Amino acid sequence: MKRIKWMSLLIALLCCFLFPLAACGNDDEGKLEPTDPSKILVAYFSATGTTKGVAEKIAEVTGGELYEIVPAVPYTAADLNYNSDSSRTSAEDEDSSARPQIEGEIADMGSFDVVYLGYPIWFGKAPKIIYTFLESYDFSGKTIVPFCTSGSSKIGSSAENLHALAGGANWLSGERFSSSASKSEVEEWINSLIG
Q1: In the chain, what are the helix, strand and coil shares in percent, each to the nearest 5?
Q2: What is the mean pLDDT of residues 161-171?
Q3: Which of 18, 22, 74, 166 is most deeply packed, by most CB within 10 A?
């Protein structure tokens, strides 16, 4: 009997050390529990490469699978001109029904328990392609952990505005990173999520 207890304790300790930065479903306090990294997806949209850099660090720290949300029609420099009312980003921001098409898809979304969802902040919000992504899959029972990149804007209500698009998902508080975010900064944030 003592041997079984020791074995159980040893297995529990090994899990804590082998998967300390991975994540699973959230508990009562909005935290993540350690789990198999193969159950983690790091999905991101990055028009300029800034969000991609943070997403790669999250995937490295968690061991999760990296997935880029690629627009079927890539954004040009003119499209990203936020100062022009006629730019593509401005038009999409003004159109509540805008849903830019995504190239490709995730073969087995059902195999993931946790989705880190990354995007740049555009006009204080998530780009409409993130709306397309969330409406393309069933997130019931999954935990979504948003993160964003911005030169100055906080994550604010950008993530909260997305909640209705992923009905049945558990949302954790998100984080904003600058373009110079270090791996240790990302790792510290991820560690703060683990319950």
Answers
A1: 35, 20, 45
A2: 90
A3: 22
Ramachandran bin of 62, using left for φ above 0, alpha for ψ from -120 to 50, beta for the remaining angles: alpha
Domain assignment of residue 57, given as a range: 15-193
How many CA atoms are closer than 13 Å to the CA of 134, on its beta-carbon side?
A: 27
8 A C-beta contact, residue 172 and residue 145: yes
Eight-state DSSP code of residue 82:
T
Instruction: Check: CB of residue 127 under 8 Å from CB of residue 120.
Output: yes
- What's the rounded Cα separation, in Å, for the pair 34 and 25? 9
Model pTM? 0.82
What is the count of structural domains for the chain?
1
* Tokens 């979304």, located at residue: 109
Q: pLDDT tens, 73-98?
A: 999 999 999 899 999 999 999 999 99
